[in-house]
Amino acid sequence: MNQNQINEEKKELEKITQTIEDKAKWYVIHIQTGYEQKVKQALEQRIKSLGVEDKIFNIVIPTREIVVVKKGKKTKSKEKVFPGYILVKMILDDNSWLVVRTTEGVTGFVGAGLKPTPISEKEVQAIMKFVEQEQPKFKAKFSVGEAVKIVSGPFADFLGTIEAIDEERGKVRVLVSIFDRETPVELDFLQVQKI
Asked: In the Cβ-directed half-sphere of 194, how many Cα atoms lie within 13 Å?
């Protein structure tokens, strides 16, 4: 067999593999919250050891990058978009269903009735697009109506109440009592702390 024949066979095999994977659909599995990574690793090991690589192709824990304010500092962190859920791209048959279903930590497939229901390609694309958004989200550790102390800026040491939270921009609107009147002041998450 010469190199050209080997290359042709490789291309043919890749086409077959791609065609098989094209028949696969995305399913959502429900798992114990907080065990997403462990379940993913256990499932990946089971797929290899039970030889179902031709049925289960991809396992995704949808996460996104956010900015968290901790101890007055902004730090980047990963946040699970759907805690307690994992996406699995697979060709569903009795064998592949059993491999996923009997993996430790999996509580079941999401779907109507007894049979798992695949999610649409549109839903998958929306989830992936949401996960890949560049804009890091700020995670507010505050809630509306909460009393806070302003720690920096022209209103440092004033006390106030949170009127609104803008997680997209990392800002809060605080009602500060100035001259016996409630005045709204927009501040950065870093400029306020819980009392």
From this structure: 10
